[in-house]
Amino acid sequence: MGSPDEQAALSLLDHCSCGFMVSQVLFAACELGVFDVLAEAPELLGSDTVATRLGASSRGTELLLDACVSLKLLQVEMRGGKALYKNTELSSTYLVRSSPRSQHNMLLYLSRTTYLCWAHLAQAVREGRNQYHKAFGVPSDELFSAIYRSEDEQLQFMRALQDIWSVQGRSVMAAFDLSPFPLICDLGGCSGALAKECVSLYPGCQVTVFDIPAVVRTARKHFPLLQEGRIAFQEGDFFRDPLPDADLYILARVLHDWADEKCTRLLARVHRVCKPGGGVLVVESLLDADGRGPLTTQLYSLNMLAQTEGRERTPAQYRALLAAAGFQGVQCRATWGLYGAILARK
Predict the structure, then answer these.
(1) Which of 51, 140, 260, 286 could covalently link to 340 via disulfide, CB atoms 3.0 to 4.6 Å apart?
(2) How far are the Cα atoms of 21, 68, 124, 136 from residue 119, in angstroms, in the given order?
(3) What band does 104 get if pLDDT is binned at 50, 70 and 90?
(4) Residue of 15, 133, 222, 256 marked active site
(5) Digit-coded pLDDT (tens) for 293-317
(6) CA 298 to CA 296: how far, in whole Å?
(7) Which residue(s) pair with 183 in the sheet?
(8) Pairing between β-strand 279-284 and β-strand 340-345 as defined by DSSP bridges
(9) 146, exposed or middle or buried, with CB in 10 Å at 0-12, 13-18, 19+?
(10) How many beta carbons lie within 10 A of that of residue 328, not counting itself?
């Protein structure tokens, strides 16, 4: 046992300075397909076999597998002096690509895009703006032109949102009883993943997913099953184009992309078309009242600095934005996951 100062220094090195290394272990294992190879095997595998199936070096694979064991992502058994590996329940549920609750695509997006923007976080703090130009050499005057800078990048982003809502979508849609709203519009609803959760929970509702033309085309091409039944897609820019008729408008992970002025402008547009008694449902990761927690949401807010024009906010800040747009009766509820739900009415 060291002194308190020595223990504090060790904690700093272990948990903070090496945090990016932990992320890269997870990212590399996902990108290489470690969890998929182990999931497909009928028995436990040694590191040499895993390396062969991955097309990777034996030494590197063994080091990566053992790091995953320490992170509780893999289990190891010793048989005849040989280490054999298998997935844990955690990795089987959330890291194997074929799992219905897999976060594989979300982690690949974090690895290939978010991580590269975060390499310039200090510069983002200095400049107060996102870092797409330094990370990827693309201008970000039009934010989603940078976010959707290629068809592959757009598809990866949409698949990442699919992963997020496959785990947390049902809880945010159940935070309030939405059955009084038979016609719902999900503004910026991307591939329709949240809309799918909505119609599953509320059999009497129909959802229109409203997003820019490139996103709608990609959704129709790569997520065709979501077009059937009670989910429809409509092309448009919610800052410029007429909004669909609806009893309830959903803004999920939308307002955090934008500065207050643009949020107020968008909410005012929604309020103008909203029917009397209708409402808006805002879904975002919420900061504590003093803005100093929870840590995950603070990190998300820094991510908004590095990747968008916006920030995460407290419930009071969202209340103020909604009130400025004319909404009233604001209610805020936490869910079991990372996102809170805020319902306001006209």
Answers:
(1) 286
(2) 13, 24, 10, 12
(3) very high
(4) 256
(5) 999 999 999 999 999 999 999 999 9
(6) 5
(7) 206
(8) antiparallel
(9) buried
(10) 10
